[in-house]
Design a protein that fits this description.
Length: 402
């Protein structure tokens, strides 16, 4: 009779309580890790998008005097940076093995500074041999002079004949001539020894070395194979460009110009036309023109490609006899000035980075450009055109410089 209640208790224990909350399911670890990786990937993509360099076009602020009409571009062209003395290639005058280079590429040197040292042992020995021969010739000449003096005394006492006296005179003349020959030989050997050290013929910067230590250097050579060092004087930098002969009427000596390197489009250098080559290139129909860069710096290098803009000469306005010279003003492209009223500004590119520069604009020029009273000094690279997505400190890439 007791078995029935126990069966009911067992069945109650097996009954599912549906009023209790369901057990919490655990997410697999691989699913949580995948979600975190996706989040990190999205964050990295957003950061990469934010740090990507924007492409902008620039124009340059110009400085002009209020009493002068601002200069404008009359002609532009692509050219290269050159040096006033071109390149100086240094080789050896005497053949020998290269013992040491005393300078490195890019090092600035002075005139007369040692650049390369050659093995000088054979030239030291040759000089010592020539000096020994000279000493022997001088001793023979001294002996010949004394013998001539004795012969003259004997001839005066009528002991020696005139023929014997002539022989002594001839022997002395030969000895003196030998001394002169060996003195010239010593001088030549001394120059050979000095030339085992190659020295700078002009102040400048070492551009390139052509041979290695231990190689044999020979004078001359075929197609410049005798060169050891090439250098240039970077204190006198110029830019050259080929101008079409149909445009030569726009170019004249002393004309102002500006130079913008392709490698650094946010830099601009004032220049002046200093040389018009005398002959037209018949095949290309162009004339080579050189402009001198007035204030070169370390950013400019020989053979660097640049864009050269020839400017119109400023025309002075009427001047009063008692008036003081007008202060310089800065002129900026109209589409480089942004904002309104007191909130005007311009985006300035410096070293590939944007800077927001507040401006005070006092008016406009007859051709529509802005007269900047404060905020710019002239020569700055200003962003022109649409610039809605730009921000302070953003990296940018200059794609064109009008």
């Amino acid at each position: 009779m007791e078995s029935a209640p126990r069966s009911r208790d067992d069945l109650a224990a097996l009954r599912i309580d549906r009023s209790a909350p369901p057990p919490r399911k655990r997410r697999p670890l691989w699913l949580a890790g995948g979600a975190g990786a996706a989040l990190l990937a999205a964050l990295a993509g957003w950061l990469a998008l934010g740090s990507r360099s924007a492409q902008v076009r620039v124009a340059y602020a110009e400085q002009s005097r209020a009493a002068q009409a601002p200069a404008s571009e009359v002609l532009t062209g692509s050219g290269y940076v050159v040096t006033g003395d071109r390149y100086v290639s240094l080789g050896v005058r005497v053949p020998s093995r290269i013992e040491a280079y005393l300078v490195e590429e890019g090092e600035r040197v002075e005139k007369g500074q040692p650049l390369v040292k050659l093995d000088a042992r054979q030239y030291e020995a040759a000089l010592a041999e020539a000096k020994a021969g000279l000493a022997s010739a001088r001793a023979n000449a001294l002996l010949g002079r004394r013998e001539l003096e004795r012969a003259e005394e004997m001839h005066a006492r009528e002991v020696a004949s005139e023929g014997e006296l002539d022989i002594k005179r001839n022997q002395l003349a030969v000895a003196v001539a030998e001394v002169a020959r060996l003195e010239a030989e010593v001088a030549r050997r001394s120059v050979d020894l000095e030339d085992t050290v190659v020295r700078a013929t002009t102040p400048g910067v070492v551009l390139e070395k052509f041979k290695e230590v231990g190689e044999i250097a020979v004078p001359g050579g075929f197609q410049g194979s005798g060169e050891l060092i090439r250098m240039a004087n970077l204190d006198d930098l110029r830019a050259e460009v080929d101008v079409n002969e149909a445009d030569l009427s726009r170019i004249s000596l002393g004309q102002p110009a500006s130079v913008v390197p392709d490698a650094y489009p946010d830099k601009r250098y004032a220049a002046e036309v200093i040389k018009l080559y005398p002959q037209i290139n018949r095949q290309k129909g162009t004339l080579k023109v050189e402009v001198e860069i007035l204030e070169p710096d370390a950013w400019l290098r020989p053979d660097m490609s640049v864009r050269i803009s020839f400017l119109s000469k400023p025309e002075p306005a009427a001047e009063g006899s008692d008036e003081t010279p007008a202060a310089p003003v800065v002129i900026a492209p109209a589409d480089a000035v942004r904002g309104e009223g007191a909130g005007r500004f311009a985006w300035v590119v410096t070293g590939g980075v944007l800077r927001r520069q507040p401006l005070e604009v006092s008016g406009t020029t007859p051709d529509g450009r802005a007269l900047v009273a404060s905020g710019l000094a002239g020569g700055e690279a200003l962003v022109v055109g649409e610039a809605a997505e730009l921000r302070e400190g953003q990296s940018v890439e200059i794609v064109a410089a009008p």
